[in-house]
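Table 4 source record.
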Amino acid sequence: MMRLLPQSLFSRMVLILLGGLILVQSISVVFHLRERDRLLFRSNSMESAQRIADAIRMLNLLALDDRQKFVTALNSPTLLVSLGVIPSSQALQNPDDLGKADSFRMMLGDLLGGTQPVEVTASDPEWRLGQHAANTPGLARNTHVQKKTAFTVETRLRDGTVVSFGVFPSGETFPVPRRPLSNLLILLAAVIILSLLAVRLATRPLNTLANAAEKLGKDINSPPLIETGPTEVRRAAHAFNTMQSRLASYIQDRTRILAAMSHDLKTPITRLRLRAELLEDDDHRARFVKDLEEMESMVAATLDFMRGVDNPEPVQPMDIMALLESLQADAAEIGQQVSLEGVAARPYPCKPAALKRCLGNLIDNAVKYGKNAIIIVDDHDKQLQIRILDNGQGIPGAELERVFEPFYRLESSRSRDTGGTGLGLGIARNIAQMHGGDLLLRNRPCGGLEAILTLPRRS
């Protein structure tokens, strides 16, 4: 059921409002037409009841010889009168028809003043007309009668003579009134337009807040929201701006502290490096210097990782192919195998140094653990995708996400030859997300690992 609902809040609110309005208006139209039919029935029935009441009064006054002449003069396609009992085996049992018959009987009773008991039954008009045509000379059998309810009224005159009246629909149809329906449609259209406007005004602040949150994830220093509109919207915008300000302040403080720690650590590391040079044992000296270099690399990598999106580098168009070719050339100088396929159709707006760091980390990982790197560029209208493939052993499926965690390394990489700080992939993903994209890893079916860097293109 939930899959059938629209995904956006605006569409769902519109669906609920329009569905409710159409349902309510449909019910209103049904009640209106039913009330109209009831009033029209009462109006038409009142005329027939008046004719029958007048006929009964006249028949009570006429002599026996004159009654048949009067009855013949009264007969018409809508009112057929006969002296004598007509079988009523074709009486209808529909509750609606029975209700109409009872209402018609009450009308007659009121017109006759309660002095003349009458029986009214609802019957099939075709059958009743046939009965009267058979017993009434000069009445055509093929008289047109619509498929509506007919009434048979039977009563006894003062001298005991039974008289029957067949009341038939006139065949006149009453069209659906156009003016009320036109007014109803105009009113419905106006309410729909106002509802759409109200829903749009109600959901616009949510869209603004969502866009601001998306920008915040890419740039912590993005402009704050404008605090205008209704009270609830102003409070939400103020709370968002306060959160953004606190996050920016926290990141700046953290970066300053880490930068200070990094600077302070470099001094004792430098002193230790100088003292290591004084060691007489060449083997111990080499190991000591290597440990210091690892410490220095970890300090620098940790600082880069903790900076996250707080990168002051400006965004500018970058020739992606030139960047990749330079990385390929750098790798070739030190004997690494890196191949390049595909082409980027146009420059990509980015932070060049950060993106170079991201791609460099991915290429280094591919060469280090997969012996070689294959770079494939797929450029589309909406995104730029760069895939780096290797021919290594790959990564267990359960570890594909964990390798992005800070300082997390697979057991097989914990050696002095290949083990790094465990921050390279985390830094690469941070840079990808800083550009509004993402970085994913997946194992290749034929063996090896594939790193997929996806960067959005904005028109």
